[in-house]
Design brief:
The complex is a heterodimer of chains A (280) and B (242).
Chain A: E1 7-10, H1 16-21, E2 28-32, H2 42-53, E3 56-59, H3 73-86, E4 90-94, E5 97-100, E6 103-109, H4 115-132, E7 137-139, E8 146-147, H5 154-165, E9 168-172, H6 173-183, H7 187-193, E10 199-205, E11 208-211, E12 217-220, H8 229-242, E13 247-250, H9 258-279
Parallel strand pairs in A: 1-2, 1-13, 2-3, 3-4, 4-7, 7-9, 9-10, 10-13
Antiparallel strand pairs in A: 5-6, 11-12
Helix pairs in contact in A: 4-5, 8-9
Chain B: H1 3-11, E1 21-22, H2 32-51, H3 53-59, H4 61-74, H5 89-94, H6 105-120, E2 146-147, E3 152-155, H7 160-168, E4 178-182, E5 189-192, H8 197-204, H9 209-215, H10 222-231, E6 235-236
Antiparallel strand pairs in B: 2-6, 3-4, 4-5
Helix pairs in contact in B: 2-4, 3-4, 3-7, 8-9
Classes of the chains: A alpha/beta (280), B mainly alpha (242).
Chain lengths: 280, 242
């Protein structure tokens, strides 16, 4: 069953009671898979209760789909165990890498968009989808730098991955905005080139503002504040292309009290309501 | 560029930014690369701060972060389960010469690690408080008691519970040199055991109650020890086999 075309939030344990008591306007939740791979205890107990009430999306952050090394089969087995037990509405991961021979680095590291990377990513997605037994969504990254060796644009790269593997796409609108500012491209052009027909979920999050060595703006995808106004504007542009989609607010650092997060979710719900009126 | 090249530069703050990276407009990437360096170092340091809260308070932000920086370069996480990151941090602390005047610090870190393991340990059904009373006295010596997966015992020559309580602003317990880690419901506890109780609890892992009592240090208050085990859900019902 697909996620509802409604507002969701990235789940944080401090909001458990609020969500169980007064969840509106939140209609679904996303969890980071790796936080629920312990053997037992409160995290898994809470997740069981939440899954009886909300559609759950499992969002992996550690599979290292773009890694040069083969996928970690132990981690793949943990993911499968989590998903088999939870039967989530969706599974998504990132166009990035995070694991190397020397360890796991807990960040979404960038990839050059080359034919070699394309082959590797597609092989890993095939392996993942086969192991899980369903279609995954692949998320576009936020970028701080570019690789001289890249020969593909990011939208074309993602379109080709979706075509080859049959995976869907998770479009993070804040990531598009952050990358556009950081790398100097037009986000409207990016969306125009993006295979919006493959979008199964949309992410929104807050970013911080910094500067690079030359004094140029450098946006940091921090997930630590409200979604910026230009990102909301870009969202409306995206929704006009995709129609209503499951729309998630990510807030992972400096996590606010429930009313603040609820207001962000309400804003997302309002955006979906507005686009339904436009489409109608 | 290989990912080995990228990682090598990522882990060494003074290393040059690898060739072939730009700002997307033809200029070298420069400090943009530092965003990734920073993300990795900060996120792993914060994971250690969260996992070792008393150790962090005692060392202070600057000292802890310097030590964490060395540790994460020497021992990055071996898998993406960051909640388990820090196995071995106690041994790493033991090897830092300037910390020699805090000989209890590695044991404190081990205690915090044990609490975290307990938090994520597998669930079990607690053994009811009247389980012993309902067993015929003649059968008690042959009774097998099963420790919950969260249950651990730590023996230490240091007053760890007092040190931890002071660091975290908690009520100060008595230190006996033997600590029970258990998880009643979902929140792990570290509580003092009667002196001599540790060998008894460890013996319960592999022998029935009678022999385990004989393994206990003579004079140990086993009544109090058993009461603590029941009160803190440190004993569970055996898994039923089909």
């Amino acid at each position: 069953m697909p996620l509802p075309n409604a507002a969701g939030i990235g789940y944080k344990p401090q909001h458990y009671k609020d969500l169980m008591d007064t969840p509106a306007p939140v209609q679904w939740l996303e969890i980071h898979a790796e936080n629920y791979m312990g053997a037992g205890g409160r995290p898994l107990a809470q997740l069981r209760h939440l899954s009886e009430r909300f559609p759950i999306s499992v969002h992996g952050v550690g599979l290292s789909i773009g890694g040069e090394a083969p996928l970690d089969t132990d981690h793949l087995a943990r993911l499968k165990q989590l998903c088999d037990g939870l039967n989530p509405f969706s599974f998504s991961e990132h166009l990035a890498w995070s694991t190397h021979d020397s360890g796991y680095f807990n960040d979404l590291l960038p990839l050059p968009y080359t034919d070699a990377t394309l082959d590797r990513v597609c092989t890993h997605i095939d392996q993942l989808q086969e192991a899980l037994g369903w279609q995954m969504l692949l998320e576009n990254p936020s970028s701080y730098l570019a690789f001289d060796e890249s020969t593909w644009s990011e939208p074309d790269f993602l379109r080709e991955i979706a075509a080859r593997t049959g995976c869907g796409l998770l479009l993070d609108v804040n990531n598009v905005f952050v990358s556009a500012v950081n790398l100097g491209f037009n986000p409207i052009d990016y969306i125009a080139a993006f295979p919006t027909e493959n979008v199964g979920e949309i992410h929104l999050g807050g970013h911080d503002e910094d500067m690079d060595d030359d004094g140029a703006p450098l946006l940091i995808d921090s997930h630590g504040r409200e979604v910026a106004d230009p990102v909301w504007a870009l969202l409306m542009h995206v929704l006009r292309a995709t129609g209503p989609r499951p729309l998630l607010i990510e807030w992972d650092t400096d996590v606010p009290e429930w009313p603040v997060l609820r207001d962000e979710a309400q804003r997302a719900a309002n955006a979906l309501a507005a686009i339904r009126m436009v489409v109608a | 560029m290989t990912q080995s090249t990228f990682i090598s530069a990522l882990l060494h703050p003074d290393a040059p930014v690898p060739d072939g990276l730009s700002d997307g407009k033809g200029r070298p990437a420069g400090r943009r690369f530092a965003v990734y360096r920073n993300n990795v170092a900060v996120s792993l340091t914060e994971a250690l701060q969260a996992g070792f809260p008393a150790t962090y308070r005692i060392l202070g932000d600057a000292n802890f972060n310097t030590i964490a920086g060395g540790y994460l370069r020497a021992s990055p996480p071996s898998n993406p389960m960051i909640h388990a990151y820090g196995d071995g941090f106690d041994r790493y602390l033991a090897g830092i010469a300037p910390l020699a005047d805090m000989p209890w610090l590695p044991d404190l870190a081990a205690l915090e690690l044990a609490l975290r393991h307990a938090y994520h340990a597998a669930d079990g059904i607690p053994l009811p408080a009247d389980a012993l009373a309902r067993t015929a006295p003649a059968k008690l010596p042959a009774l097998h008691l099963h420790l919950a997966p969260a249950t651990q015992v730590i023996c230490t020559p240091h007053p760890l519970l007092s040190i931890r309580a002071q660091a975290l602003g908690m009520p100060r317990p008595e230190d006996t040199g033997e600590v029970l880690i258990a998880r009643p419901a979902y929140d792990p506890v570290a509580i003092p055991l009667p002196v001599g109780a540790a060998p008894f609890i460890k013996a319960l892992c592999h022998m029935p109650l009678g022999p385990a009592m004989e393994a206990a240090t003579e004079g140990t208050d086993l009544t109090t020890t058993l009461a603590l085990l029941f009160q803190n859900e440190a004993l569970i019902q055996p898994e039923k086999t089909a």
